[in-house]
Amino acid sequence: NTQGWLHHLARHAVACFLTRGDLYVSWERGRDVFGRELVDEDWALNSANWMWLSASAFFSQYFRVYGPVSFGKKTDPEGRYIKHFLPMLKDMPKQYIYEPWKAPLEVQKKAKCIVGKDYPARIVDHDVIHKENITRMKDAYQANKEAKACEGTSTAPPKANKKRGGGGSIKTLLEGHAAKTNVNPARGGRR
């Protein structure tokens, strides 16, 4: 909270951890925190990124989950980012930097970082919870698909209309939204 900036890969990891990956918190809560705390926040981008990373919209590969441990090991194997922003872990050996709860007590003492005292205890077991959440997401997507089938509508994106220049364009989507909501997108408000 001292810088007001977060690397985009860290944003991805945080969003996935808070939503579909582990905690299953609404993407709107994460969006609100980022909107309040980040100096480079842009409301539209922030909202869209949270919807995308939570697999609530735009991105339907809900089964692709950033693992809080594996992602860190892959993108920063030495743990430099973690050690910089979590100085209580600066002396933790490399093999435990992303899983300090696995370090034997003697290692934790030597690193001056006792899990549960100097560093929070783990709140979820990612290996268990992400599988439960994938099942939740799968069930939600299936229920949506079945509901759309009952309504007689398709979950597929609109097909291009060659006479109008493409049915899936931003302009067409905005015009369709404006007609349904009585909003003039060119003026940014109600008609």
Determine the N-to-C terminus distance: 41 Å
Q: In what order do the strands lie side by side in the largest sheet?
A: 1-2
The largest β sheet comes out as: 2 strands, antiparallel
How many helical elements?
A: 8
What's the average pLDDT? 79
Poorly predicted runs are 160-191
Helix content: 40-55%
Order of helices and strands: HHHHHHHHEE
Q: Taking Cα atoms only, what radius of gyration do you get, to the nearest Å?
A: 22 Å
Total strands: the figure is: 2
Which percent band covers the strand fraction? under 5%
Structural category is mainly alpha
The geometry reads as globular
Tell me what you see in this structure.
By secondary structure, the protein is mostly helical. The protein contains eight helices and two strands. Strands 1-2 form a two-stranded antiparallel ribbon. Strand 1 (183-184) and strand 2 form a beta hairpin. Mean pLDDT is 79; it is low at 160-191.
Topology (SSEs and partners):
Layout lengths: L7 H14 L5 H11 L5 H11 L16 H6 L4 H6 L19 H6 L15 H26 L18 H12 L1 E2 L4 E2 L1
Helix pairs in contact: 2-3
Keywords:
2% strand, globular, disordered C terminus, two-stranded antiparallel ribbon, mainly alpha, 191 residues, 48% helix
Short description:
This protein has helices spanning about 10-20, 25-35, 45-55, 70-75, 80-85, 105-110, 125-150, 170-180; strands spanning about 185, 190. It is mostly helical and about 190 residues long. Strand 1 and strand 2 form a beta hairpin.
